[in-house]
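PT: before anyone asks, these are the final sequences, not the draft ones from last week. 320 residues across everything. Please model them as a single complex and drop the result in this thread when it's through.
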Amino acid sequence: MDIGAAKMIGAGLATFSLLGVGLALGNLFSTLISSIARNPSAKNDLFPIGLLGFALTESIALLAFIVAMLILFS
Amino acid sequence: MKIDPLAQFNVKALYPLLIGGIDITFTNVAAYMILSVALILAILGFLTRSSSLFPTRGQMAVELLFDFLSSMIKTYAGREGLPYAPLVFCLFLFIGMGNLLGLLPYAYTVTSQIVVTFSLACIIFVSVTVIGLVKHGWGFFRLFLPEGIPVYVAPLLIPVEIISYFSRPVSLSVRLFANMVAGHVMLKIFTAFAALLAGGWFAPGVIFPVIITISLFAFEFLVAILQAYVFTILTCIYLNDALHLH
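LR: through. Structure below.
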């Protein structure tokens, strides 16, 4: 197999980590929604925490992106 | 038309400078960093030009921002963290302004260089460690063994805690850097596709990529502020560890 094809396969495989990130984001927001639904007055306290969790989870997805880019272009 | 989404991160030398064998070339990264600091100083100076006990609207805006950050420090690092409010304020403004400046067309994003974010993270890491050592002396190393942990887990736990302590600057810097790079690459790819479509036979269809690009731009705006916020909030959490040792 030539190296270009192997790089593309590797970069494609690197995106598999998005599976975990998708699960995590869905879990995060479903929990956020259900906790706000249970206690609407806590919304102002919960929302910044949710955003923080979103940003921290998203950075995992971006690590996968960086890995894919490194595989493709190095 | 050739799409090169990574060309926007090229560092260009604006004014080559070599002093004593050390290359301190003035690059576009340095120029944009100076520009962002100058913009922050100009905006803050303009808004608070006539400080008084009865604040004007501009002074009110600056005070709101400072209050927001100092209440964040109070929540995450306690009252002892308040002396470090200026550091957190400067960090938030510098990162936020760097991110927002990068969103302008043809502008350079300083936070998309790992060396910039890693230096910022190292400043945080070293200063937090020094603060902890000065405040607690040798007791600072209790940070690696939380209280109430049985002794027989210690050989396993201490290396894990030490590794997680030393990976802090890496994760802090890579998070900001990866967010900025990925966001700008994504924007570039979508706009390049829109431009390709506009030149082809399917020109009316270009409206869809343009709409997506606009919404992505709004998302990037959110990410720019959010990443500055996350960076400062994690600084507060690390500060809390150094001040209170778990």
